[in-house]
């Protein structure tokens, strides 16, 4: 997925539009989680220190890789179901690579998915992310926003979370705003223009086959 031109205001506008379609008699929708992003507060003014980095692997691993990925990006789903699983087995689980996953938000649906993935904390994050990517074709094509968020709720429950916990995470507008600011600052700092993209020991690389990625990691290990 390309065109990294997403601004915090664009994401907020999507949420605000969803919010304005609701009447006061309707129960809260997940779209409310983005409402805080519509405030005048700029990205530079948002404290992003509360956002936890999601990592796998040994802290002292010789190779550090940061992945920038979107839950609504088909190429990202393909990467996670194939290449990433091989990298995890051969490099992360063996102590050679420290892997950090950073979300990219092209739309509100990807942000909702992120809120669900992070709802279980670091210990559940990668397992929930696997479920989100595996079910991407189903939940992203569910239809209306309410149907999409219902599918994400199902994924959260499948991961073992209670409905109240999932709903609280989806309705956390402050967290949503902070995540958008965090994403934008990171993406701008690392000059991310497409997903998935990676930063390997400080050098940016694009999506790779497993063979190419393996060669890249092996070279960094030398």
UniProtKB/TrEMBL annotation:
Residues 14-222 form the Thioredoxin domain. Residues 1-24 form the signal peptide. Keywords: Redox-active center, Signal. GO terms for molecular function: disulfide oxidoreductase activity. The keyword Secreted does not apply. The keyword Signal applies. Belongs to the thioredoxin family. DsbA subfamily. May be required for disulfide bond formation in some proteins. This is DsbA family protein. It comes from Pontibaca salina. The lineage of its organism: Bacteria, Pseudomonadati, Pseudomonadota, Alphaproteobacteria, Rhodobacterales.
């Amino acid at each position: 997925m390309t065109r990294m031109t997403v601004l915090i205001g664009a994401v907020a506008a999507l949420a605000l539009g969803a919010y304005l379609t609701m009447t006061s008699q309707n129960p809260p929708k997940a779209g409310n989680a983005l409402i805080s992003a519509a405030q005048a507060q700029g990205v530079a003014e948002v404290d992003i220190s509360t956002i936890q980095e999601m990592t796998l692997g040994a802290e002292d691993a010789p190779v550090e890789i940061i992945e920038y990925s979107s839950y609504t990006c088909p190429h990202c789903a393909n990467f996670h179901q194939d290449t990433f699983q091989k990298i995890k087995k051969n490099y992360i689980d063996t102590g050679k690579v420290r892997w950090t996953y950073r979300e990219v938000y092209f739309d509100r649906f990807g942000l909702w998915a992120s809120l669900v993935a992070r709802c279980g904390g670091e210990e559940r994050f990668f397992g929930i992310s696997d479920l989100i990517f595996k079910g991407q074709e189903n939940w992203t094509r569910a239809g209306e926003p309410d149907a999409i968020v219902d599918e994400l709720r199902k994924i959260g429950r499948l991961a073992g979370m209670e409905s109240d916990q999932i709903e609280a995470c989806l309705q956390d507008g402050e967290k949503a705003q902070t995540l958008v600011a965090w994403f934008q600052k990171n993406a701008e700092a690392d000059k991310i223009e497409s997903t998935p993209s990676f930063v390997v020991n400080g050098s940016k690389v694009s999506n790779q086959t497993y063979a190419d990625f393996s060669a890249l990691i092996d070279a960094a290990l030398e």
